[in-house]
Amino acid sequence: MKAGARVNRTIAVALAALPMLAHAHADGAHTHQTPFASGLFHPWTGLDHLVVLSAIGLWAAKEGGPLRRLIPACALLGMLAGGLAGLAGVVLPLVEPLILASVLVLAMMLLRAEGVSKPAAACLSTAVAFFHGHAHGAEFGASGSAAAYCAGFLLSTAALLAAGYGAGMLLHREGVDSRLRQLTWRATGAAVGLAGLALIAQG
Prior knowledge:
By secondary structure, the protein is mainly alpha-helical. The chain is built from eight helices and no strands. Helix 1 packs parallel to helix 8, helix 3 runs parallel beside helix 5 and helix 5 runs antiparallel to helix 8.
């Protein structure tokens, strides 16, 4: 139970810190003018991006097996594709509502007891990340290197995915009770869902 208690505390602290991280980075992002730095800090300036990217990493850890690699890889590809679409000026309808809805979708993935197939996991992670990437690309300024901007937000995306994945993998450590593991996944999914509802209410 001691190991399980540490897992609970770790995930609770990480989720509680998300709003503070979003605020801190939102304040600091404007002081960095280079395209790379702008891209690097952009994913940290919105709570929706923080929650979704961390939740994708958590989901990958929960699914296990080959999906642990497939889900983050598809998310990075989706972010890149969406970013390029945004940079190219491609207009997509309902981007912001879909971004907020993606938080609730990921909450359901964390709450469900059954796993998902490879095609479903690949499509979902790519689609969710695509809309977030589009938002990043669409907000890039007209000056500077678009490639450097993309490299920046992809690096931060990878970091957030890794953070969520690492937190999720704590639940798979030897000695963590299976019932506690399931309870913690449900609590994590509920927390992500509540964050999504809060974001929708604010929007």
